Fold these 3 entries.
Entry 1:
Amino acid sequence: MKSEDAAINSEADGKISSSQPLSPSLDDTLALFRKIFSNDGTLRIRVIENKHSMPIRCGLIYVDGMIDRDLIQNGITKPFMAYEFTDEESGNPAELMEKIRMEVINISDIMVSTKLDELVGAVVSGKTVFLMDGYAGALNINAQGWETRAIQEPTTEKAVRGPREGFTESLFVNLTLIRRRVQNSDLKFVFTDIGTRTKTQTCICYMESLASPDILKELYSRLERVEIDSILDTGYLAELIRDEPYSPFETIGNTERPDALVSKIMEGRIAVLIEGTPFALTLPYVFVENFQASEDYYINYYFASFNRLLRVLGAFMSISIPAGYVALVTYAQEMVPTLLLLSIATARQSVPFPTIVEALLMLTIFEVLREAGARIPTSIGQAVSIVGALVLGQAAVDARIVSAPMVIMVGLTGITTLLNPRLTGPLIIVRLALLFIAFFLGIYGYFFGLLGLVIHLMSLRSFGVSYMLGVGSIRPQDIKDTAIRAPWWDMYLRPAMIGARNMKRKPSNKRAKRP
Amino acid sequence: MRTLRRVLSVLVSVLLLFSISGCWNYTEVDDMSIVAGVAIDKNKADGKLLLTVELVDTNGGLDKTQAGFKMISLSGDTMFEIVRNIISITGKKLFWSHAKAIIVSEEVAREGLIKAIDWYSRDTETRSDVFIFVSGEKTAREVLNLNSTTQAIMSFELAQMMRDEKYISSAPTVEIWDFIDKLETLGNNAVAPIVNIHVKNGQKNERVEGTAVFVEDRMVGKLDGDETKSMLFVKNLITGGVLDIEDKHGTPSYSLEIISNQTKLKPRMAGGRLQMQIETMTQTGLDEVMTVEGFMKGETIQDIEKRASERMEADILAVIHKVQQEYDADIFAFGENVHENQPKIWAKVKAHWPEAFADLDVTVSSKVEIQSSAKTTRAIRLGD
């Protein structure tokens, strides 16, 4: 009993000593489990007996809701109770256990375990522990089964053309989605758990022949250094292991689409998935990936390139419009075309606020509407847009609280931000910074701000890979998947540095020949 | 320690940024009076400068689609004094960057333009690409004030006219930097377009036609629209316009649309005299034939070309002689051309160029080519 107390005490600290031996007495072991799982109403302990020769008492331990009842009934309890054991077999517990494992229980995934901490871990992860009276060991049977959300189209990355499957909260369903797309033993899934208390299952997924061993090593070492008690989304992990923790720009990508994830793996990237979230991390992540949508690769490349250029332009406009407008209207009026200046001047008559206050006011209102629209139930979403467009737009102009050109500028800013859902956060911050510097220093300040932004972006790294990979390069292969998307027959190399281990995607430049 | 140093250096850089900024202090657009154009007259009463500024009226509000204007006149001793004093009338600082036109009265122009335009070219807020005009009327401000009924901004209309002048070629297009540049160059005299009020059927319109000829900064005479066109031919500034040509009976009946023109000036020493050979090569299109029989029956293309060439040679010679004899102003930039092409000769004549210009021997050989006859080769047939 003394050792039992020690086990329970250490359990209170969230740890079980692995040296804790298992007692051969079924009742003792069950009592120990009851103590470990005290105040846990979901623990189920079932004692079953086989009485064909001499009574064999066994115990099943599992957590309700995480097992497949039918499987336990048909795979464990029914065959065990019906099996006719001979006397000799019943005499030797070790042989008996082996026989039960090999011949009685018809569930594919069974492991033998004699360690208490392993068994407790198995129970909490939804496995079923099979104990036998008189034997200091247990079977660890995988009869997991729980409700998962159905595979649905991902809402954050919609595509008109392309696969409609999205990841779910279940790690194994997600791995299935990946495996189905890559039927190759080269695809590796390495498991680990993160979170000292949640023990969240984490899977690192990569192509062995493509992923850079250096980046992989770096990833493992960063994951090892993570010390956090719980991980509920990959967002936790991304912030904990990313480079440049103070930059507003993401240096680790995330995706909800299995097809996007596989395409990144195929470029030599590494993916990290965790149990409980449909968002997988991909790394290294470079700046141009912010502008890429998976649909780009499925549709005509002219159209895809056009869309990409629009997104780049949109990001630029979204940070530049308020700053540029304020700089032009308050400092460099001589640079505004005459008629435009006149109409701005006419519209600004009797507006009580300076341009900068106007700009900040409208931008704040826009962000409030955006955030409100994102948080409230969809059924009220319409009301927000009506309030935003009518009340705050039209009425504010009519009441001369803001000028009409400013409403146009803020509207343009907002709509161009929506072009790049991945960049929303950074764009807002950069936009405000540029707006302030443009207000204090005019066009000059705006350009210095842009310069600073470029310097910052150029200095970023993602797992040793330059964030602005390919920007400024004049090698044709480096720019084939950046602001434009070259046709597939021409993208015969993987991205530099990321796919350095095996650059060739296909024989160079072979396109379809005319018959 | 390293972090501290980095933070400090960033802070210092940001602070330095403020000190090297070009334009401190922002201005709201509604806090300034946008100047569209300016007229410079001489005040009859005291002989001082009288400045009339055309300001864009932005008080129209949302319902008005077109900005109006208002006129403010003030006299004073110097331009800048007047410009600053106008603030006491408008209440807002004048904003000069969008001004499009300067109109000076003939009186001011004949007395010398330096006093009127020096401030304009020197000041930091004014632009040197503003168009300059000489008023053909008594005062400059009556031209600027012409549109008081239609509320259209005169200066913007004048600027638009200058942009379309290339299709007429009846007035030179002169921006103030160009004007000042010519004032400073020996062997090149300045010109400016003349703006008139054109009255027909009781309607008053502004009309830009003709050239004011300057010697140094003083206006000495005028050229009319046709003479201006000949002058522009010599200066190789023709980009469009119309040549009207008589038929063999002497009645004007053909219009040639100028498609392109190339003029070459060749200064030569001929018989101890400096001679300027002018060769023009004009591509045209026959765009109008005012005869019933059409041009192929009446005359050949070659006939028309020949007559046009002769006519042009005569016109050009006439205007050069007029300028040589009456004004003695080298508005054709002959001197500059001699300087560029015959520097040795220029060294000799430089000292007494005005006299040398008046004495210059000029030969003109023009070639007019008709490339096409527009959409048709035939005349309009008269049915019964």
Entry 2:
Amino acid sequence: MKKLISILLALAIVVTVLSACGSSSPDPVANQTVSDDGRKILNVGRSNELFDMDSTIATEADCLEVISAIIEPLFYTGPDGTPVNALAESYEVNESGTEYIFHIRQNANWMNGTPVTADDFVFAWRRLVDPVNASEYSFMMEVAAVKNATPIICGEMAPEELGVYAVDSKTLKVEIDHPVTYFLNLMTFPSFCPINEAYATEKGSQYALGADNLLCCGPFYMSAWEVGGNTYQLKKNDSYYDAEHVYLDEINFQIIKDSQQTMLAYENGDLDYVRLSGDQVARYQNYEGFTRIEEGYLWYLSPNLNPSSTELSTGLENLNLRMAIALSYDKEIICNELLKDGSIPANFAIPNKLAIGPDGKDFRETTDTYLKTDKAKAQEYWEKAKAELGVDEVTIELIYDDSDATPTIAQFLQSEIENTLPGVHLDLKAQPKKSRTDLMQKRNYEMGLTRWGPDYADPMTYLDMWTTGSTYNYGEWSNAEYDQLIADANGELANDPAARWEALKQAEKLVMDNAVILPVYQKGTAAMVRPGITGISFFPVGVGTIYKSVDIVK
Amino acid sequence: MLKYTAKRILLAVVTTFLILTLLFIMLQAMPGSPFNDEKITQVQRAALEAKYGLDKPLYIQYFNYVKSMLRGDFGVSYVIQKNMPISELLKVRVPVSLQIGGQAVILGTIIGIFLGIVAAIKRNSFADSFATFVSVIGVSFPSYVFALAMSYFIGFKMEWLPLLYTTSHPFLSTIMPTISMCMFSMATVARFARTEMVEVLGSDYMTLADAKGIPTRRLIGVHALRNTLIPIITVLAPLTMELMTGSLVVEQIFAIPGLGSLLVTAIQFNDYNVVLAVIFFYSIAFILMMLVVDILYGVIDPRIRLAKEERKV
């Protein structure tokens, strides 16, 4: 009898606990106001620690966001995606588009009272390209085509040779090799932020390691950042030149690794702005405060046309085989039933809402779509491929990351491709991301499921990748016409934005017609922003959220 | 006793060294490098590897590593907080983990022993069933189930305790993590205590002591308890370690900036130095714990010490 009671009791507890875990769908109403005693405080949830605060070293999106809030760039990205003046009060560009003069605001000062000068930029920019620092984002200087950036990064020239000069204390001159239509957009990127030379030199290796080792000049300053802690905090910088247009008094960041707890903390009122994980998107999409974000990340299959060893030869150098695979899987199902996070099927190589053209329209709005799922056509291509290759079956090894939703996607792709194209076999091989990247960089793979995130708001951030000899041209596709188009877009067409835009469209068409990559989806995600908070923007490129413009209106 | 202790310590040192070597070999066998990102070119990667000495031959890397470890210098983080000395990272995280782990061990052991003894004395009563029931729950549910359930009901619904760890309430915000983590050790200790106590109570010397007219409280509290403690101490060492390593998930749930979450992040981002440092720290803690247990055996039950010493002669 006692045993029976114990068992029943145990069961009761199990049921209670399990139901508690499963049915947590509390009402979405905020139970706590954000601003008390008139101070406006924003509480932000983050899933990762703050890795670096040195603008010449940082690469993580979270870090870039904070850097641009505490150390201002020359320009911010405006609400419509175009640059608005930040530290730069005005600028001039010469007729050939190869020389920029930036006038730094007279009233822009560091928090220790010294003015922000052109020398601070020169110092930071040289630091970015100095090979001694091995900065991961030094290539941004090459993207901006700043004179001598490439030889300096390769160690063939001294960093002092970089084409950036302080004309006087508030005038910065930049020489670039060829016109770059998106140069001002690039200047919003935190890698181009200034660093106070005297301060950084004094701090030496301690610079930017902790809140006490940072000198700020932006709308906020870092008031707390415990080393290895789970919180960090920004406060309003009262000495900022435009302090009257900074609305928040304090921003608290809380690191929570568990996405479910993050949502509890949001519903609790502890957090006001959090990112949702993929599986939470479907659940919260009808809640007030739900905000969809289109990320710039494009996920695609990369077939290797020229593997490093003959053992990896698969027939993927055959265009018909690549086309067959590209059309054989249902992208809608992947987005709407597997991911359910707002991702959209990718029938393109340049993501949606990445870049605005000279016509003021998004690149995608005026361009065709390609490689839309068509299983019947896929089979036709497969028949042709079989005839051309003289085989009935091919086996392709697919490598992919072992994290998040990727394994599910890989399994689905396998079943779709194998079912649509009888005779095509896909061997799945999951890898930790770092080793998957390693294999692909060494061209030591057959087909990889990979992604690319944009670094700047221009189609070139993708198209550049598939030129002959590019490190990121994993599949080793090579096409003279394509290389010429890209060279033109970077060179002679740079002063003719409309013609350049056309060339980029041509280039994308070539990539798609040749099935250089087999696009799968463009990643979507979502955030919860407490109603009453305004000005939180989501840019797919560079700095995601600009906190200067954020306000709490209740 | 001195010789016994010295031998234990020597053994501990050798084990430490072996673990260090093993860790190094294992990490070398791991694929990828910490700098393997899409956006880095091979040239830059080589520069980074040179900067951190990862381009050197393995034996030199190993030699450098052991040398600095012995000096207490764990190197700098490559990824998590670039160029930050790892000892700085550990300095803030170790106390947090130790505090919560320690609280959980102490709470779990006290409640566990209490439950076990009550169950043993009042065998086959309601108290016994209750204790058994609690142990079954404690052993069979992973700590994160308690953590999630508590954070939902107590932290979120009732708002009695902070949902997340915060330095402004260093004790209040560790209550839920402590309770969820102590459940397993409590259950284990309770089971051991009960079994052992039942055995001790039925032994001849207890019957003798009882016959001599020693009061029950003293009988249980001194004579029985002391003998019951031996197996409990044996399980306590691994339990304590489990609490520290098993705290990974609980730390994630309550956003505790402890060692566990550091380890997980370091593994995810291939931050070699940090992984090595944290695991090394865990190993040292485990070895020390075992050392203390070995020595405690001797103190609590002289038979063990004597037996071991006799065997040596």
Entry 3:
Amino acid sequence: MHGSGEKHLTHLREDLVKNLRLDFFDDEDIESVLRDLQYLDRKIGQKTLALCQTLSHASSSLVPRTLKRIKNASRFLSLKEMERWINQAFDILDHQGVDHFLHFISRIDEESLWDFLMPKGLSLQEVAPVLEAYVRGISGLDLKIAPGKESYTDTSTLFVPHSVSKYEEREKNFLLYKFMLVHKWAQMVGGTLTPDAETLSAFLTDSDAPHPDIETFFRLFPEKDLAIDLYTVIEAFRLEPFLAKELPGLMREAESMKKDFLKERMPLSNLTGKSALVEGLYRFYLKGDIEGPVPGVLNNAVEEVLRLGNGATLYESMKTLFRLYDAATGLGGSYQPRSTLLFLGVIKPEEVSLHLKAERRARIKKLEGLITKLINMPAFEPRKTSFQKTVFSEKTPEPAKEYLLIKGRIIELDEETKGFIENRGGIPGGIMVKGADIGGAGCPMTLTELAEEEEIFQEADGGIKYDEWDYKRCGYKKSWCTLFEHVLHPVHDGFVDLTLKRYSGYISVLRKKFELLKREPKIARRQKEGDDIDIDAVIEAFCDARAGLSPGDNYFTRYDRHERNFAVLFLLDMSGSTKGWVNEAEKESLVLMAEALESLGDRYAVYGFSGMTRNRCDFFCIKDFDEPYTDVVKRRINGISPKDYTRMGPPIRHSTKILKSIEARTKLFITLSDGKPEDYDAYKGDYGIEDTRKALVEAKEQGIYPFCITIDREASSYLRHMYGEVNYIVIDDVKKLPNRITEIYRKLTT
Amino acid sequence: MLNAIKTEEYVIEEEPFYLPSGKEIEIFESAYKNLIPVIMKGPTGCGKTRFMQYMAWRFKRPLITISCHDDLTASDLVGRYLVRGGETVWLDGPLTRAVKAGGFCYLDEIVEARKDTTVVIHPLADDRRILPVEKLGEILTAPPEFLLSISYNPGYQSVLKDLKQSTRQRFLAIDFSYPDKRLEKDIIMHETGVDDLTAEKLVNFAEKTRNLKDRGLVEGASTRLLIHAAKLISSGIEPRTACDVSITEPLTDDHEMVTALSELVSSIF
Ligand SMILES: Nc1ncnc2c1ncn2[C@@H]1O[C@H](COP(=O)(O)OP(=O)(O)O)[C@@H](O)[C@H]1O
Ligand SMILES: [Mg+2]
């Protein structure tokens, strides 16, 4: 037994050395690897050897790295724990691959190892879906939950620790998670992190910052840590009554938690000055007594914060902050920031500010793109008096209004654009001018019109023309877009086969499910022939006959395979933005959908679209209605790849045309995309949304049922408008798409 | 003794409790006076049926309600011959009776009916206002007191359950959505006698479930579900249990969603 074990080890060692040699390790390196292995405990050493041998088959360079990590980890972990740790690493390597493995073994800081050792805590991963639904329900906002070192929010994502193990009981740890989340929610409702301009203007002067936010506010305090800790607890006092009213059940339960946290705090007697005041407030918040070295000041502070509980405004909270801050600094001493409470979390003004700035930047970038493009456009001929003029009424610049002057063109500013420019801090170099300075000359145009004019002379030949809806004009632009049909190039890369293999278990369930759907028996009444007599029909006929009417001849009931008569067209977004996961998910979904539809026998066709500008809308055929699901079709699915932009109108109109030519009782039109319609030119924002919406309405008017599936983390609010109340679904995680889509189809057609 | 009355004699004597959320009563009145039929759009359990009862009471008209299902035939609506003691007798269907009696005919959940059944209401629903009774070879003209109304829940996702344009374009549509918070609270209190605080908590919970529509739930909790829960509570069931069995479980089977909703319940109660 022992002997064969030794033999096995020798074999592993030899194989490892061989692999290292093959990867050009010199003798010295190999020597050092073997020495490292030697130094480990015998049992650990054996496991590590096996691990290294496996790794060396992937890449020898992983071996020394791994050994180093193992050596480090063994400084924190006992032998038993070490064994468990290596086992888990090995498991991860086997089941999740090298990347996950490397990630796991790189987490050998104290905190991570602690997490590894304390698996009895509740991990966020386990409860994140429930928590996310919980806070979305409570807030009505599309908030995300993500793991973070502390609990805080940037107003869009709620960060909470990736595990909580304060309590033995799972329920209590879960309660703690909920408690953290609702405090963040209260802060958002109360405006804690996003004071409006008016509130801020009471404390800041105009010169402080062009766009003051909570971060600018805290710059007013030389001791920022002190101010933030005070603000956090002050706001907790202000908002707690709100929480108690909205979520009485939760707050009742959580109340007892405060005592548990109180126990952990440092005794007040060890603190002095400001630290004692702040700590005193936190202790009072946790239902502690008012005590410690500064009872007088603390008493006053407590009175102040309690007053805030009666529906005070944010402004009053901020006022209180200033007073308490002054009182605290008056006490002297240095401030040791140690006050944070897990469930109250921390306030990170910089994170909030960064997030708000990022949002603003995204808006500005959009505008800048447009303006830069305009500035770089070739100089135009002066506007010709042509067809254009009769469409857009001749306008003259209004003296008081502001316009952009770009290469002699006068461009109107709509509210949105103006907002962008203001946010950006204005546009330099006399590009922005008052109407009065232009004089009566020239006819102002909108940004959209200008962008279009650029292209108006370059019409492409061939292709199919489609109208486009211009919501500003409330009319169609005739034959505005040109669509070209292509057959997608087949590719041999095995994507479909791989998907079939990966989902093989699911597919067989899927097939059965759809098979059932096909066979779903239904009693058809009043049939000319059938399995049984339709008593109702016979009686009625009998009566009719007695009354002298012709009795008809439909007296039977028949078990019917519920006769399906569907034709469905799938239209896939192949724009550049789908690159990566979305594209893959689209393709996987298609593969599954095809399996389902093949077993169901519904007729289906698949097309993809992309393009650039109205002159080149590409429409790719992947499978026509009359085409069987062959290997060529599969190869075309392999070949679905991200291309250019998303001008949705023309491909929708083209799909409608195709569906119109198909005979079927119910015609379904399912689009798969990843968000906003957007083209290189002016097909953006409201314009694109309105045209898409219009194109879908047109389809509906033709008796087609459109259904739009959007993969979008944001679940943006424009979708409802664009797609119409009941005709869409948002999937916030692409990974869910392949499973969801077949379910959606099933629901749609039963 | 059970007291049976004929369908067309079902006149509501006592004022049904109905709290308007907007101008629906005025709109309905003027539609009625102008002989325009009415669609009531909205999710289930938001007061459409109750509204019909109220309007029928207001105008002192009999209310004939027909719940549609996929076996409903045109004869079921219009009428058929029966044999009684060797004689053939014609029996009017509820729709015909409603027309003759000048009543309010309410077709509940119209999309559930077969498409070929739905078309018999078309001539009644446009300005002809007639009902052809084919088997009798007769055409009935509806008196001005007659009103046709249908209910329809646009939230269904099945394309088979969409209302055809040819049907919907004959009607004036009143949009019903959940009553606003204060109103809904009053409704619950009035219907079930629960106290102010309980009603408020129920409404708060409902709001949270409605936030989850399209975020995991097909639909949020309806007023009807709230009333069910409130009834259980007032007969002594513990509020959290009452909400779980009469709101959470009926809303979804998805395990994670059930958990999240239960958490919301226990956070609120
Ligand atoms: N506006 C309202 N006024 C009074 N009761 C209402 C109102 N809205 C809803 N309800 C209550 O909700 C219950 C369900 O409403 P119902 O009319 O049956 O819904 P629907 O017909 O829309 O499915 C009613 O029994 C009633 O108790
Ligand atoms: Mg009803």
